[in-house]
Give the backbone structure.
Amino acid sequence: MKIKKIILVALMFGTLITNANDKDNTNSKEAKRTVKVEFNNVKKGQTLTIKNANGLTVYNNDIQNSGDYSRTFDFSALENGIYSAELNKDFEIIIKQFYVENGLVTFLNNKNEKIFKPVIRTENNLLYVSKIAFNKEPLKVVIYFNNEVVLSNTIQGENILKRIYKLSEKKSGNYKVVINSDDRTYVKEFTI
């Protein structure tokens, strides 16, 4: 019985040391006052946004040239907390998170998070909605006709979420589709 307790304590201590070392290795770059933000394969017109943990935008800029994007930022004036640099592309949003503490910036990990945006298109009186959802996040779709809800639907459970909605041929006018997924809202307005 005593040997089992000793082995258990040794295993727990080894796990604790391993976890402490892993936390130190999550930030492979040292904290700095200025940071270079880089993205590959950007296109003119895409948007770089930097947001705080509450989702408030502290920087927003349209990309002026296609190719690789690189810009050095001085984040030393930002309040302590977690921030994200988001590149808003045509069909996806690439996110890099970093932490600011006492004017020093540390990236939280070396990999980019990707959120796939929904694709919304219309053809005659058909509305096509699709989204890649590897994280199984549900997709809430609300369709408005002349500012009144005509349909509310939640799509979930698949890696690729897709639906075709047939809109009434008798109801021509202004439509709006509002889609919520991944704690984000996407809106498309159209007329048929």
Summary: The two ends are 77 Å apart (CA to CA). The helical segments are 2-25.
